[in-house]
From TrEMBL:
Signal sequence annotation: none
Top-rank lineage group of the source organism: Eukaryota
One GO MF term: GTPase activity
GO biological process, one term: cilium assembly
Species of provenance: Balaenoptera musculus (Blue whale)
Gene from which this protein is expressed: RABL2B
Family: Belongs to the small GTPase superfamily. Rab family.
GO cellular component annotations of the record: cilium; endomembrane system
Statement: the UniProt record of this protein carries the keyword Cell membrane: no
Gene3D superfamilies for this protein: P-loop containing nucleotide triphosphate hydrolases (3.40.50.300)
Keywords: GTP-binding, Hydrolase, Lipoprotein, Nucleotide-binding, Prenylation
Cofactor(s) this protein cannot do without: Mg(2+)
CDD domains assigned: RabL2
Xref: InterPro entries: P-loop_NTPase, RabL2, Small_GTP-bd, Small_GTPase
Name the record gives this protein: Rab-like protein 2B isoform X5
Length: 223
């Protein structure tokens, strides 16, 4: 899989040309490194300053998976929202989840179960990757077995946004999983939503035709 850096002016055109588009959400406590990981992947850079995400940041990216162009939306939110439930729209139609904890702060690992429970309420089936971030700060952590991932049969990646270890692999795999989920999923909610969208589109078309017809009848005949 090859990734191209997103160029805003090209994205609209690419949207029309793209073979597919997927949404990937990031979850995890505040300051575990969610934003830094996305930035490392998209910009291949790391600015160490701490700026907590306010509400929501949406990153757009174009990737190539098996020769097909895929538009990827990365949704990154503020981890401190753990104390309230995340708004349902954050999960809406997500195709994969990257769930991050900080190997230096045990509490962020413990809180994974809260994040995971909420994720599964909204998206019972989507692929989810568990991410142990900041391994540059304590490389010994890569020897530890983190049972949470094993318990739920989730893949676990040891990464560092600071030095880039495994970041491209993490995001490339997440994109692949999202695409394959979208292509193969028989998620009932998705099907229902799709049906509803089709119905409202048909209704809009009918309304438009009605209005056009009425317009013709109501307008005075040409003299
Ligand atoms: N040593 C080290 N520090 C990191 C790494 N990734 C992030 N940080 C630091 O951790 C802090 C938080 O990073 P963010 O990416 O802002 O964390 P976040 O999860 O987006 O936080 P919220 O937006 O508050 O939810 C920053 O000071 C980063 O410099 C890493 O891989 N290694
Ligand atoms: Mg952030």
């Amino acid at each position: 899989m090859a990734g191209d850096r997103a160029k805003p002016c090209e994205l609209d055109q690419e949207k029309y040309d793209a073979d597919d588009n997927v949404k990937i959400i990031c979850l995890g406590d505040s300051a575990v490194g969610k934003s830094k990981l996305v930035e490392r992947f998209l910009m291949d850079g790391f600015q160490p300053q701490q700026l907590s995400t306010y509400a929501l940041t949406l990153y757009k990216h174009t990737a190539t998976v098996d020769g097909k162009t895929v538009l990827v939306d990365f949704w990154d939110t503020a981890g401190q929202e753990r104390f309230q439930s995340m708004h349902a729209s954050y999960y809406h139609k997500a195709h994969a989840c990257i769930m991050v904890f900080d190997v230096q702060r045990k509490i962020t690992y413990k809180n994974l179960s809260t994040w995971y429970t909420e994720l599964r309420e909204f998206r019972p089936e989507i692929p989810c990757i568990v991410v142990a971030n900041k391994i540059d700060a304590d490389i010994k952590m890569t020897q530890k077995s983190f049972n949470f991932a094993r318990k739920f049969s989730l893949p676990l990646y040891f990464v560092s946004a600071a030095d880039g270890t495994n970041v491209v692999k993490l995001f490339s795999d997440a994109i692949r999983l999202a695409v394959s989920y979208k292509q193969n999923s028989r998620d009932f909610m998705d099907e229902v939503l799709q049906e509803l969208e089709n119905i409202s589109l048909e209704q809009e078309e009918e309304d438009m035709l009605d209005r056009e017809q009425r317009g013709r009848i109501e307008s005075p005949p040409p003299s």
